[in-house]
Amino acid sequence: MMSASSQTSRRQFLQGMAAFGATSILLPSANRAFGFQSANERPVFATIGLRNQGWTITSKSFRHADFAALADVDANVLADNVAKVEKHQGKKPDAYQDYRKILDRKDIDAVMIATPDHWHTKIAVEAMRAGKDVYCEKPLTLTIDEGKLIEKVVKETGRVFQVGTMQRTESDQRFLQAIALIRDGRIGTVKKVTCGINGMEASPVIPAVDVPKELNWDLWLGPAAKVPYRALPEIRQGYGGGVPLYSNCHYSFRNWHEYSGGKLTDWGAHHVDIACWALGATDTGPSKISPLEYQLPVEYKDGNPVVDDRYNAATMFRIQVDMPNDVEMIITSEGDNGILFEGTEGRFFVNRGKLAGKPVEDLKDKPLPEGAVEKVYGGPVSANHTANFIEGMKARKQPISDVWSHNRMLEICHLSNIAMRLGRDLNWDAAKREIVGDEQANSFLSREYRKGYEIQG
Ligand SMILES: NC(=O)c1ccc[n+]([C@@H]2O[C@H](COP(=O)([O-])OP(=O)(O)OC[C@H]3O[C@@H](n4cnc5c(N)ncnc54)[C@H](O)[C@@H]3O)[C@@H](O)[C@H]2O)c1
Question: Integer distance in angstroms from the first to the last C-alpha of the chain?
Fold first, then answer.
């Protein structure tokens, strides 16, 4: 039974979702009582891709869901995570190398996807077609056209889809407070937003070596072209560590355009996301992208790297993005990681650790109006990003990180990469979602899938 207060919160949550705008669509109602396969109102989940972030989102979800299965193409990663999940929930999840075994199971309500980016779209589309709700890590896609496909399949299947941009829910609501400050006019009219997302490291030449015996390299590559496995012996320390520091596989896939988009999509997916939300630019886009300064670690010809034995994603950059209402956005590898908002009447900075500046100090004497943060979020702020996903699953409503607004901001990140790869400014038609008058640049809106790994749209 739901208490009166939880019914009220549910109602507020639904109203909030409606307030989120064009992205909020009503989905077909669930055909089971609460929509879940288990009798205890807890959804049954499975995670696909476990090594680093896969474990983070799985372990953050134990309070809310039961994990029936895990899939990974690295047998060691799979075995480690089966043991960890069993230890935490007291029940051993089933283990698969091939994620399609998970999609075939009728007892699983939702999948969490934390593979490298080049797999996201294919797995997400197949999961929705198999009747699963989806929590997929950011950046959702490798190309702009993949975003359009995901939107189409969400609409067709009525599945609930959360993107893993958890800054929208978590970080002590710091980003929500930042947006509330702007909505309350504390810096006047916003004129400039600077997203500091740090640079990428270059790499030495990384030789082709034997594939580790625990890794199914062919399946790791999946939709990407067949290439040799590359690695140097030195081991990555710290965050994401325990694997070769330089490779074209675990963790380092971020540095290769074949599998990801460098810092632009890795951190851009977080800070450009908040910037666009703050600007109210969640269903529109820029008119122009200008790569003012940048450095690619290898030579490029016709938008493609001429060598294949070292990292190829931009190491430093300063990109100017012309946003609607004459707002200038700068995406830069220089300076602090975080977002600087500048308006006609002030400026402030926000990142995961702090919210700073005079408008923030002024809050002591002049707090935000009651409910300002909830108004930004569209209802009471969920306990975490998984809880928000599950609330959406129950209500059959899209969660806070819906695919439409995510794709819009990710277009800026993908376009920035295309502009750097081609070395020129791009004019963008946000209504048509096409680059204006540049056939070669438009060819980068999609990619070829390896035979046998095409996506059935
Ligand atoms: N939200 C965040 O803040 C955040 C943080 C870190 C990573 N991420 C995202 O999570 C994703 C994974 O990043 P990571 O650092 O965990 O990478 P990782 O390389 O450490 O882990 C990826 C795992 O996916 C597995 N995998 C690859 N293909 C697979 C397939 N077809 N089926 C099953 N498993 C497969 C790999 O074997 C590996 O274990 C990326 O998209 C990344 O951008 C998000």
Answer: 40
- Both tokens of 394, joined, read 């129950």
Probe ligand 1: pick from 47, 51, 78, 118, max atoms within 8 Å of CB?
Answer: 51
pLDDT of residue 7: 33
Residue 268: CB within 6 Å of ligand 1? no
Decide whether any atom of ligand 1 lies within 6 Å of the 52 Cβ: yes
Give 10-28 pLDDT, tens digit per residue: 333 333 333 333 333 444 3
Per residue in 380-391, pLDDT (tens digit) is 999 999 999 999
Residue 51 Cα, ligand 1 centroid: separation in angstroms? 6
Cα 185 to middle of ligand 1, angstroms? 39
In the block, residue with structure tokens 């997302």: 197
Strand-pair partners of 47:
70, 112
- The C-alpha atoms of residue 37 and residue 19 are separated, in whole angstroms, by 30
Beta carbons of 125 and 109 less than 8 angstroms apart: no
Whole-number Å distance between alpha carbons of 146 and 133: 18
Say how far apart CA 430 and CA 286 lie, in whole Å: 7
Give the separation between CA 372 and CA 1, rounded to whole angstroms.
30
Residue 262 Cα to ligand 1 midpoint, Å, equals 14
Residue 202 Cβ < 6 Å to ligand 1: no
If you measure from the C-alpha of residue 188 to the centroid of ligand 1, how many angstroms do you get, rounded to a whole number? 40
CB 301 within 8 A of CB 308: no
Q: How far is the CA of 387 from the centre of ligand 1 (A)?
A: 21
Does residue 45 sit in helix, strand or coil?
strand
344: left (phi over 0), alpha (psi -120 to 50) or beta: alpha
d(CA 125, CA 130): 9
Ligand 1 pocket check for 119: Cβ under 6 Å = yes
